[in-house]
Design brief:
This protein has a 3-stranded antiparallel sheet, with no helix packed on it. It is elongated, with a radius of gyration of 14 Å. Strand 2 and strand 3 form a beta hairpin. The model has no long low-confidence stretch (mean pLDDT 85). 0% of the residues lie in helices and 27% in strands. It is built from no helices and 3 strands. It has one domain. The chain binds zinc ion. The site of zinc ion has 8 residues, from loops.
Length: 64
């Protein structure tokens, strides 16, 4: 899962980004209007040099 387009860090100007996933089950996002839902993990794209997060994606939007 790599970013094709060149992303420049807003904080330090670096071009080296990587992605990470939140595995902690408490860090999932859940629909606000559904009581029973598995929720979805989040995928973070962040700068490898300073840690600035450029985007946060919901892994499985079909749960919403
Ligand atoms: Zn940076």
């Amino acid at each position: 899962m790599s970013t094709k387009e060149l992303v420049t860090c807003k904080s330090c100007g670096s071009n080296s980004f990587t992605t990470g996933q939140v595995k902690n089950s408490h860090a999932k996002v859940y629909p606000v209007d559904k009581i029973i839902s598995m929720g979805s993990s989040l995928i973070y794209t962040f700068c490898k040099d300073c840690g600035d997060v450029s985007s946060i994606k919901v892994e499985d939007t079909s749960k919403f």
